[in-house]
Amino acid sequence: MNLVESEWIPVLCNDGTRRTIAPWQMAESDILRPDWPRADLNLGCLEFLIGLVYLADPPSDIEDWDARLEGDPERMREKLTPYAPAFDLLGDGPRFLQDLENLEGQPSSPDLLFIDSAGGNTAKNNADLMVHRDRYIRLDLPTAAMALFTFQAHAPSGGAGNRTSMRGGGPLVTLADPQDGLWQLIWANVPEGTPGRAEDLPWMRPTRVSDKKQETLPPEGRVFSVEAFFGMPRRLRLVEEGGAITGVIQKPWGTNYVLWKHPLSPYYRQKAGQEWLPKHPRAGRFGYRNWIGVTVKAEGDDITELSLSLRDAKTRGAAEAVLVAGWSMDNMKPRDFLWSEEPLFELTLEAIHRLIGMIGAAEAAGVALRAALAPVLAEGESREAEREGFFLDTEPAFLRHVQALARGEDPREAWLADLRDKALGRFGALAFPGLDRRHTDEIKAIVTAHGNLQGSFRGYGKLGKDMFNALEFELPARKKGKAA
Asked: Is 71 helix (H, G, I), strand (E, B) or coil?
């Protein structure tokens, strides 16, 4: 199977039908999205297609990008065809994303290609509660190809010598989404550049091994090249039998990527001047409280950087939303897979400043609610779940207020009122029923906690001060003596 010429990518069309396409057909106007059986493969497929266009036919500048907004399948076919010899999945020559050396050894199950599969020791010790074993004994060639790409692009830590991806294990991916079909999504995220060479692809040459701590840096004067889309941290060879992939041979010490910045991921650093690090998803729902440093950035912030894909999209005016996705990992253990579509707003610098303050106020309010619930719920997951519920409750109002910001209005007073109403409502629903049947000391603790929570929304106490400072409200005057 050739990954440029063969029809191997399942897609969903605008009319609800499903078909299989070759990569150049991504430019056809009737295709809605990839349709693999797993969300992580759909994410990998989007990254793969963006990488192909960047390799073969990237925009040279914003004018060129704008001129080619409408997809041209025949042009895409013509541009991709010269690269076809580098995209064979099997065969005696170079193999897509596989070691140039014909690796020898005992094959592992194709399960190895999926982040949420159980490793050897996990299965041996019957510890695969949240991960799974023996699901993929045989893979058809298309699924194996997509799983191979996704695994190399997101590779987690995997024991001695098994390298993570150039973005670390389970990176966060942010894609500008015009919400107008597959081609528009792909084209919105292709960086500007010049076509690459087949020789630039890492499987076209002997692997740059890292058994002696060798490091592979980006090209001089740049932070990424086409290899960012087609990195090979793992040394792998697929084993084929009867037209299916039945095993994977792996050797340690693949390429160790250092100082690369992938164009589809946001980055951060601990302080100015230090090394940039890729962001990773947290487990659980992604909502407005997670926007800072991922979909929005404060002016003058020099410790976070939005993905190049989003920075380009703002310049191009190319997106209505942001697709935020990726595996949440605990070292080498998967915790959750994130897939969230967040709105993208056109905001002035002042509006962004206020939006970030509104998020900060919500964070302080969530902490105040969690603290107030101490007389009702034990510390731990129950109280944290209430805080998460608070953010979910306040999200519709937040999105309305961001629309007000986009119109030039100032919704901060209304936002504080929304935070107060939702926090006090959640507190009351848990604390007040059956209050008359509680012990006196319990009643006193609940009444005191309720008063403190109310006071926070008037600017009193540390968390009230944090809320008011985030919203840039004047703090209440402090009283002295008995009045205080």
From this structure: coil
- Label residue 120 by pLDDT band (50, 70, 90): very low
- Please report the pLDDT score of residue 127 as a whole number: 42
Q: What is the mean pLDDT of the chain?
A: 93
The CA-CA-CA angle for residues 21, 25, 27, to 5°, reads 140
Assign residue 159 a region (left: φ > 0; alpha: ψ between -120 and 50; beta: otherwise): left
**Looking at beta carbons, which pairs linking 3-8 to residues 24 or more positions away fall under 8 Å?**
3/87, 3/88, 3/89, 3/96, 3/145, 4/52, 4/80, 4/81, 4/83, 4/84, 4/87, 5/81, 5/84, 5/87, 8/141, 8/142, 8/145
How much is the average pLDDT of 284-311? 94
| Local structure of residue 219 (DSSP, 8 states) | S
Query: Rounded distance, CA 315 to CA 333, Å?
Result: 37
* Full DSSP string of 454-469: HHHTTT-HHHHHHHHH
Q: Which of 240, 206, 182, 245 is CA-nearest to residue 48?
A: 182
**Is 184 in a helix, a strand, or coil?**
helix
Longest dimension (CA), the chain: 87
Does the pLDDT of residue 318 top 50, yes or no? yes
Domain map of the chain by residue range?
Answer: 9-328, 349-483
DSSP annotation string for 392-441: HHHHHHHHHHHHHHHTT---HHHHHHHHHHHHHHHHHHHHSTTGGGS-HH
- What one-character-per-residue DSSP string does 277-321 give? EE--PPSS---GGG-BTTTB--TT--SEE--HHHHHHHHHT--SE
Q: What is the pLDDT of residues 29-84, one digit of tens each?
A: 999 999 999 999 999 999 999 999 999 999 999 999 999 999 999 999 999 999 99
Q: Cα separation of 151 and 40, whole Å?
A: 9
Give the CA radius of gyration of the chain.
26
Q: What is the Cα–Cα distance from 458 to 427, expressed in whole angstroms?
A: 17
Cβ distance 191 to 308 under 8 Å? yes
Number of other residues whose CB lies within 10 A of the CB of residue 204: 14
> With 60 as the cut, is the pLDDT of residue 480 above it?
yes
φ, ψ of residue 481 in degrees (nearest 5): 65, -145
CA angle 293, 403, 457 (to 5 degrees): 75
Alpha carbons 382 and 374: distance in angstroms, whole number: 10
Is there a contact between 40 and 337 (Cβ–Cβ < 8 Å)?
A: yes
Q: Is the dihedral of CA 176, 181, 184, 187 positive or negative?
A: positive
Q: Any bridge partners for residue 173, and if so which?
A: 325
The Cα–Cα gap between 301 and 229 comes to 27
**Number of other residues whose CB lies within 10 A of the CB of residue 407:** 9
